[in-house]
Amino acid sequence: MDPFLLEALLNGVLLGGVFALPVLGLNLIFGVVDVIWLCYAELVMVGMYAVWFLYTQAGWPLFLAFAICLPLVALLGILLHLLVVRPLLSAPPINQVLATGGVLFVLQGAATLVFSTEFRSLGVEMPPMELGEVFVSGTKLAAFVAALVGAAVLWAFLKFTYVGTAIRAIARDREVMPLMGVDPRRIYLIASAAGGALAGLAACLLVVQLDVHPFVGLSFGPITFMICVMGGLGNMLGGFLAAFLMGLIVSVGGFYGSTDLSYVVAFLFFILVMFFRPQGLFTR
Amino acid sequence: MSAGARLELSGIQAGYGDFQALFGVGLHVEPGEAVGVVGPNGAGKTTLLRVISGLIRPTAGTLRFDGQDLAVLPAHELPGLGIAHVPENRRLFPHLTVEENLKVGAYTPSARPHFRQRRDYVYTLFPRLKQRRHQLAGTMSGGEQQMCAIGRALMSGPRILLLDEPSAGLAPLVVQQVFELVRRIRQEGLTVLIVEQNVAQVLRVVDRAYVLETGRVAAEGSSAALAEDPAIRRSYLGGH
Amino acid sequence: MTPRAFRTMKDMALPILVLALLACVPLLSPPDYLMHVLITVLLTALAGTGWALMGRYRLVSFGHGAFLGIGAYTMGLLWNYYGISPWIGVPLGVAAAVVAGLLLGYPCFQFRVVGHYFALVTLAAGEIVRILIIALRDVTGGSLGMTPHQASPGDAFAAMQFGKAGFWWIALVAWALGLLAWRLLDCSMASRALAAIAEDEDAAASIGIRVTRTKLMVTALSCALAALAGALTGQYRMYLNPESLAGLGISLQIVFGAIAGGMFSIIGPTIGALITIGLEESLRIAFGTQFTGAAALVYGILLVLFMIFLPRGIAGLLERPPRASTGRKAPAEGTVPVA
User: Fold this and answer.
1) Does A102 contact C247 at a Cβ distance shorter than 8 Å?
2) Is residue A83 scored above 70 in pLDDT?
C-alpha cells in the first residue's frame, strides 16, 4: 500500500481520537440532561487559552497547565448548567439550544476582548516518529493516546461507579430515578462537570496541534455535532465509532483531494446519513 | 429486614394540573402489615402511590411515615427513610444488566455498604435473576422483569414496600409466582402496600384492603370481610 | 395567496404611507454614516424575516447563512467573471438559493428529518457552503474575500453600484418585499396548513394536508429572501467573504436577531435587526475599536437572557394575547416552538 495513503489512514485514526473527546462530552450532556451544548467547542477554546496563557505567559510547567485545565473547564461546565441550562430545563429544546448559542457568542466575545483575534501558538512540538514506512507526528500520537485514556476513564466511571450507573440509567428514564434515591439535579451537575472536564482534556490535546484564537471553535465545533448525531445522539459508543469514521473520511479525503474539500465530503456524508438513518449509524 | 414503621395518610387531595385525581383519601399501614388498595381503572390508585413516594405533591392532606411528614421532603430522600416504590410497568432500565439495575437500587449512601449482602439475598429470593445477572434487563420476560423490579426496590433495605399493579401484563401463572414472592417477603417481616386490579389475588395476600373508586375510599376492611362482601364480589370478583 | 390581504383600503393605506415616508429619507440629506447603518438594518431585517418565515413554524434552520452566501456569490461571480449585471445576477442568485433549499428540503421533509436533526442538517449545509467558498479560493478568493469589479461611472446603474440614496431605495424595496411575502403567507391557506403541521405533522397529513409540498413552499420563500439579502449586502458593501455570508457564525446572528425582535410577528425580525445593529454601532461609537468582542459578548448575554425571560422577543411584549375565539392558539407557553 502507498505509504502516504497509509499515513493518511493513520492520521485519520489519530484525528478520530481527537474528535472523540468532544463527541463523548456532548453525548454525555445530551444523554443525561437532554440539552445540546452548542457552545461546547467554545468551552474547549477557553481551555486552550488557559493552557496557552499559563504555559507561555505565566511560565507554568506544561503538565501543571494541563492539570489545571480540566477542573477549570469542568467548573465552567457547572456554571453553564446552573446559569443557562437549569433555568430552561422545562423550556422547548430549541430555546435551550439557542441559549447555549448565546454562550457561544459570550465566550467568543470575551476571548476577543481579553486576548484579541491574534493566533496564539503553544510552541511545543514533539519530533515525528517513524512507524515502519510512515511518519507520524509525535504530538498527534501523544494526543491520541491521551484521548484514549480519557475515554477509558470515562467508560470505567460510567460502568463501575454508582453515579456512573445512575447516569446511564437516567438517560433512559428520568422520572423513576428519585424512587431509587437519585437526585436528578445532582446528576445533571455531575454530568455537566464531566462534560466540562472532557472539554478540558480535549483542549489539552488540541492546543498542541492548533493555534488558538477566539473562533477556533468554529473549525471543529460543527463537525463534532455532526459526528454526535451520526453516532446517535446520546449514544456514547456510537459517537466514539463515528468519530473515527469521520476522522478517516476527512484524512483520506484530504489525501485524494484537498483538506477543505474533504470536510465538504464529510458534511455531505453526514447529510446523507440523516436522510437514511437519522437515529444514528450505530443505534440498535 | 429493618424494623417497620407506620404509614399514615389523611385527607389527601392530589392530581395533575387542573385534573384532580384524589379527593380526601385516608389510609394507614401498620408495621408488618400487608395492605391492599383495589379499585377500577382511573380510580387514582397509581396516583396514590406516587403521592406517597413523592413523585406528586398533594395539594392538601397529611402524609406521615414513622411520624415524619413526607410532603415536605424531596422524592429522592424517601428511599433513605425506608420507602421503596416498585412503579407501574416495572420501569426497569432496559439497557442495563440485571445486576446494574439492582445497583441503581442501592444508590443511597446508606444502602451502598450493604450492596453485596442484599444482592445475594435478592438472588436467593429469585434464583432465576441470578442466572441472568449479566443479561440486559430489557431482554427478559415480563415476569422476570417484575422480579427484577421488586429486587431493585429491596436493595435499598426498605421498611415499607409499595407495589404498583405487580400483576399488570403478566400471564396468570406468572402472577401466581409474583404473589407467592410477595408472601415470602411479608414473612420476613416487611411492610407492604399493594395497589392492584386483580382483586382476587391480592386479597389472598394482604391482611386488609381499601377500595378506591373515583379518588375516594369507598370501602375498607379485612381481606376476609371484603371477600365476603356481596357488593365487592359483584363488582370485582365476578360476583355470585 | 388571496387578495384578501388587501381587502380594505385601511389595510393598504398605512403600509404604503410608511413606505412613502421612508422613501423620502434620503431627501433629508442625512449623514452617510446614518444611511449606512439604516441600509444595513434593512438588509439584516430582510434576512431575519426570511429566516423567521420558516422558524415560526418549527422549521428552525441553523444554516441560513448558506443561502446568503449562495445569493451573494452567484451574483458576484457572474459579474466578475462574465460581466453579467447584478440586476440579472441577483435574481439568478435567488433562484440558485431556492434550488439549493429545495434540494436540501425535499429529502429532509420526505424522510421526516425534524427538530434537532433538521437544525443540524441545516447547520451542516451552511458549513458546506462556507467551506466550498474557501476551498474554491482560486475562483472565489477564499477567506480573503472577493470584491466586485468597480464599474465605470457610465455603467454604474447597470452594475447596481449606487450611492447611499440609491441603495436605500433598493434596500427599502427588498425589505418591503420581505414583509409583503410574510403578509401574503399569513393570509393564505398555507399558513394555516403550516401551523397545523407545526402542531402535529401526522394529524395534519391525515386530514389531507400535503406536508412536504407545504414545507417546501415556505422553504423556497425563506431561502429566496435570505439570498436576496445576501446578494444585496455583498453588492452594497462591494465585498463578499465567506465568514460574513455563510457558516455558523452569521447563521446564528440571523437567528438571534429574529428571535430577539420576535419571530412570530411580521415586524419582529426588523426590530431584531434594529437591536443587533444598533447594539453593534453604539458599542463601536462608545469604545471605538478598543473593545472588539464586546458586541458579541453583549449579544450573547442578551440571547441567553431573552431565552430565559423573553422567548417571544421584544415583539412578544407588544402582542395582544391570543383571542380564545379564533381556536388557533399561539404556540405553547409563549415560547419558541419546540423542535
Assistant:
1) no
2) yes
Of C132, C292, C307, the CB nearest to A98: C307
* Residue A41: strand pairing partners: none
Q: Do A222 and C134 touch (CB under 8 A)?
A: no
Can you tell me the distance from the alpha carbon of C296 to that of A230, in angstroms, rounded to the nearest whole number?
A: 30
Picking from B75, B65, B55, the residue whose alpha carbon sits closest to that of residue B3 is B65
Q: Which of C116, C275, C306 to mutate to test the interface with A (most CBs of A within 10 A)?
A: C116
Cα–Cα distance, A113 to A281 (Å, whole number): 41
In this prediction, residues C106-114 reach a mean pLDDT of: 85
pLDDT at C321 over 80: no
Average pLDDT, chain B: 89
pLDDT at B40: 86
Nearest to C300 among A96, A103, A218 (CB): A103
Comparing C-alpha atoms, which of B226, C231, B123, C118 is closest to residue B234? B226
* Smallest CA–CA distance from A163 into chain B, residue: B107
Name the pTM for this structure: 0.86
Report chain A residues whose CB lies below 8 A from the CB of C259.
98
Residue B185 pLDDT > 50:
yes
CATH of A3-89+97-121+135-276, one of 3.30.460, 1.20.140, 1.10.3470, 3.40.50: 1.10.3470
Residue C226's pLDDT is 96
Domains assigned to chain B: 7-236 (3.40.50.300)
Interface predicted TM-score of the whole assembly (ipTM), two decimals? 0.88
By CA distance, what is B154's nearest residue in A? A180
Judged by 3 or more CB pairs under 8 A, whether B touches C is no
Q: Which residues contact A20 (CB under 8 A, 6 or more apart)?
A: A147, A151, A239, A240, A243, A244
Is residue A213 within 8 Å of residue A8, measured between CB atoms?
no
Chains B and A share 3 or more Cβ pairs within 8 Å: yes
Q: Report whether pLDDT(B98) > 60.
A: yes
Residue C326's pLDDT band (boundaries 50, 70, 90)? very low
The domain locations on chain A are 3-89+97-121+135-276
